[in-house]
Design a protein that fits this description.
Among the domains are: about 1-75, no CATH class; about 365-480. By secondary structure, the protein is of the alpha/beta class. It has 17 helices and 18 strands. A hairpin with a 2-residue loop joins strand 17 (about 540-545) and strand 18. One of its GO terms (molecular function) is metal ion binding.
């Protein structure tokens, strides 16, 4: 058994399984450790967080309870459970929602594809809620029909953004019995009570660790007019107030519908039981939603910790505004509006350039920076492909330096991901490597007195690593970016865009060779080549001429702007 301190002087215990079981029973070993370190404090000293028993992955994750990074320890590395709070489906999905789900998707991809963990993911869909009922009244649409229409739109938006769907997905309206059984158990445990109107409230005064996520104190004064014993008590079940409201009969009397917080607790527990490895959502959900979820489940399962790792994504703001983007404030940009100006890959790159915990200032400048960064990856892939096809002259390269650079890139990339999934630093590492390789193949002069050290294998290895890294982040394959958005709607009319553009460029290359063959350049042929290149560029195809041929990159925004003009 070992103890160690992190950067903020918090002490952690690393122990074998049998030691961990002893700790769980005693909660505290009042003795010096063999290493001479101070004995580990009780769980309360960690701000309510307990280090799980299992395999230390070498990854560190920010923990809001301790206000610092803690080790990621997995109970069962062969199956990692992950629950994400789903949307309340009463309106269109906006980019504030999208940023949360894209960032969560990025982290899940990192764990799956880079670290090779087997994630089992789940999400709820809140289709019974005050906001849905209000919108139903305003529009005259049936509440369930309205909710399912926006749910279908949400799913379509996530597909457009290349967000992988969860393995398990559950609607609240379809799982009312599960929620009621969960509430029944809390009543049996005397952690909840039935109010005079048959609403059910969670009694926070009987849960000692309430406030461990947000560091808040319980308000203990009575609020009789609200039917609650304590001000901090929250609704598990809301009694029906009006006849037209959606409601279900309850065993404790009357009819009603679930409160917001109990939905996630009951549905996540239905999937994963009394312990969840990861639970994700926006930072604005940490309190009261996640705080109440944790309290309910700890009380239900009589445990001190239900979720081992809470991941909260930073909120998205419009540039110049302090408040988050939200439907209630009317300051939203829908996913459809986003994709009219920018691609899904560009929005994902914007998320990658921001630490998942940080707030994002959404603006055209942010998106143009993401576009330029993504273009660097596309241009690098095109340049490297041209070099490998001998369209550029081979250069004298330093094999030892390339090997050292490749090793450094791989190590720094992995270290960045292990440091709380620092994707911004990962992108910087890849950009630095690409810049170094581009200088090697574009700027160095060939040595006529010495055969060049080709090092094609090392260059390809670096290129492969970068391409796979981007793919693991959810960016479309760099080699397929040219073709991805060019397929005609009619599947029977599809053409091979790569082959078509390659043929056009081959003819243009022959014209260029004829134009410069001889002592006098054929100005008319060169002008024709320029016109052909400009024509392709107006349709989004950026042509890059090399000594022995041409390569191209597709930039869809150029094509779109050309068509608007």
């Amino acid at each position: 058994m070992d103890a160690y301190r992190n950067a903020d002087n918090t002490i952690f215990i690393s122990c074998r399984l049998e030691e961990c079981m002893q700790l769980r029973s005693s909660q505290w070993w009042p003795r010096k450790l063999s290493s001479g370190a101070e004995p580990a404090p009780p769980a309360s000293a960690f701000g309510g967080w307990q280090r799980p028993c299992g395999e230390d992955t070498g990854i560190r994750i920010y923990n809001h309870s301790v206000r610092g990074k803690v080790p990621l320890v997995l109970r069962n590395p062969q199956m990692v459970t992950w629950y994400t709070c789903g949307p309340t489906v009463y309106d269109k999905t906006h980019v504030g929602h999208a940023s949360t789900y894209v960032k969560v998707d990025i982290i899940q991809r990192i764990l799956r594809d880079h670290f090779k963990y087997n994630l089992v993911t789940a999400m709820n869909i809140t289709d019974v809620d005050d906001k849905i009922i209000k919108r139903s009244r305003e529009t005259g649409r049936n509440w369930l029909e309205l909710a399912h229409a926006y749910d279908a739109e949400f799913k379509e938006n996530m597909t457009w953004l290349n967000v992988k769907p969860p393995n398990l997905r559950a609607h609240v309206s379809a799982n009312i019995p599960v929620i009621q059984r969960f509430i029944d158990q809390l009543l049996v445990n005397k952690q909840a009570y039935v109010a005079q109107d048959n609403s059910v409230y969670f009694d926070v005064s009987k849960y000692a660790n309430y406030g461990k996520l947000e560091k808040i104190s319980k308000e203990a004064h009575a609020v009789a007019e609200m039917g609650k014993r304590n001000a901090a008590d929250f609704a598990l079940w809301k009694a029906q107030k009006e006849e037209h409201e959606p409601s279900w009969p309850a065993s404790w009397g009357g009819a009603g519908r679930p409160g917001w917080h109990i939905e996630c607790s009951a549905i996540a527990s239905m999937f994963f039981g009394n312990k969840v490895d990861f639970h994700a959502g926006g930072l604005d959900l940490r309190f009261p939603h996640h705080e109440n979820e944790e309290a309910q489940c700890c009380a239900h399962f009589k445990t001190d910790q239900w979720v081992n790792y809470w991941l909260h994504t930073g909120q998205l703001h419009l540039q110049g505004e302090e408040q988050k983007m939200s439907k209630s404030l009317g300051n939203t940009v829908t996913v459809e509006q986003l994709l009219q100006k920018y691609t899904a890959d560009e929005f994902r790159m914007a998320c990658l350039l921001s630490n998942y915990r940080n707030a994002m200032q959404y603006s055209d400048q942010l998106m143009l920076t993401a576009r330029q960064t993504l273009r660097k990856f596309k241009n690098f892939h095109a340049d490297l492909s041209a070099y490998m096809q001998f369209q550029k002259p081979l250069k004298l390269l330093d094999q030892g330096a390339l090997q050292a650079q490749l090793k450094h890139m791989v190590q720094e990339f992995d270290n960045s991901l292990r440091d709380d999934f620092d994707t911004a630093r990962c992108i910087a590492v890849l950009l630095d490597q690409m810049s170094s390789i581009s200088r090697c193949i574009n700027e160095q002069q060939a040595d006529a007195q010495q055969d060049p050290a080709h090092c094609l294998d090392l260059l390809l290895a670096a290129g492969n690593f970068i391409s796979v890294a981007m793919l693991n982040f959810g960016i479309s394959p760099l080699a397929a970016l040219k073709q991805q958005q060019l397929q005609p709607a009619d599947a029977t009319a599809r053409v091979d865009i790569n082959a078509l553009i390659a043929d056009v460029l081959a003819i243009r290359c022959q014209l260029r060779e004829q134009a410069v063959n001889g002592n006098v350049k054929n100005v008319e042929l060169l002008a024709l080549c320029d016109r052909l290149r400009n024509l392709l560029q107006r349709h989004g195809f950026s042509v890059r001429d090399h000594k022995k041929g041409s390569s191209w990159v597709y930039n869809p925004q150029k094509s779109a702007s050309s068509s608007r003009n």
